[in-house]
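Pimeloyl-ACP methyl ester carboxylesterase: structure tokens wanted.
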Amino acid sequence: MSAASVNGITIDYDDSGAGRPLVLVHGHPFDRSMWRPQVAALAGSEWRVITADLRGYGASTVVPGKTPLSVFAADVAGLADHLGIGDFVLGGLSMGGQIVMECYRRFPERITGLILADTFPRTDTAEGREARRAAADRFEAEGSGWYARENLAKMLAAYNVEALPAVAGHVTTMMTGAPPAGAAAALRGRAERDDYRELLTTVTVPTLVVVGRDDEFTPVADAEEMHALIPDSALVIVDGAGHLPNLEQPAVFDEALASFLAKL
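Answer:
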């Protein structure tokens, strides 16, 4: 575990392996530990895997208020600068995938490949924006426990909550441990994000789109839409998984990543 001063805050991160750089961005309301299976599988002589707690999450600095995706993207670039990394493969899941899209908008010249897992490119509807803002207020008023109680069986495929107790426990721990002010700030910023569909048609780097077959938050149709928009992209649908296929079916997810990375 290491810490870096980036854009006026402290970001906690792990830097594993010694090969080509792969940066993985976690989703909401998690932390970098969600990528442990991928770090274990990929970090080595070929790949240097960097995972960090986003601002407001894990052990990184909590900045209350509102955190736009552009700020998260600037933090990704800032951490890469801190580590002396010029270009890199960039992947993210859910909100992390949307941060990845924002990164591609802002500094495509630094990105050599994209991994978009269980995410979607459209902006929120008016109802969706209101729901995110209401959830942000609730995080600040009640803490993070309510979110874990109400969403565990959507984060994982419902059948995996009992079938994979260790995974369910890890996901619950991440959600209940999310700093309420940081999660709220991210929700408010995410509610104002841009629509990335036009951007995706301009992608010129190899791209892998991955989704759990039973994802309720970002269904297979969302992944198929991104796959159709991104030229020459690859699509992998992971059976036996919901919104977190990297934790629910890590062997299948890791094989998809390894196959994609081997072609870069």
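The longest strand covers residues 9-16. The chain has a mean pLDDT of 98.

Cheers.
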